[in-house]
């Protein structure tokens, strides 16, 4: 009987020892996973700080496999969508890029830095889209001007597009190429003159006619007279004692475009200069469509 009790007691002790070892092993494994999880999350957040979102996504994914938390999963999704948005921007697919950025911004339990960066990037996308629409409108108007025979105005408008800040960058280079190609195709302005013939048998009359023509040409030479060119009210490029530069004119055109004016391309530089002066006289720095009127 005593022997049986001894065996039973020994067996029970071994069972307890086994359970204790199993519990200890499980606890150690959990602690080890927690440590690795924290390490991966730290590395992911560090990658975010450095703007390396693809790398950040890899670390957040690894963290999720170690410990499924809302924070890790949300951070992984944000990083993936930022990578996607930047790729779409490089492909000039700005509407799709904006959708991806909205997902980053609206993500629950996300990384605050990625949310903030997505908001900043979205503003950039909106600005790029606005600029592209304006450049497209300018190119469209220039084509209409060329077709109507207003090559000089078309050339002026296209030059503004090709000289715009950042126009040769990756987000606008396609429009730069379009504008530059169209600009190079604008024919040079030429002035036709009537051919004159002389009769060899009437040299005296020819000489007289030549003298008369020379005299008339001299008397009627109005090359320096704006009215002779159809510009009866050419505006001096100066306002408030300062020169009105080409950039000032370009900025004024942009102001009109922002106000929804669809015919900005048809405005001559002279119209814009007059509008700038009239706006200045009214104490404004932003021109309005009505400012082009002669006062």
UniProtKB/TrEMBL annotation:
Q: Which residues lie within the region annotated Disordered?
A: 20-50, 188-254
Keyword list, A-Z: Coiled coil, Signal
Start-end of Basic and acidic residues biased regions = 230-245
Q: Which residues form a coiled coil?
A: 118-145
Spans of biased composition, class Low complexity? Answer: 20-34, 198-217
In terms of superkingdom, the source organism counts as: Bacteria
InterPro entries, per database record: TPR-like_helical_dom_sf
Q: What is this protein called?
A: Lipoprotein
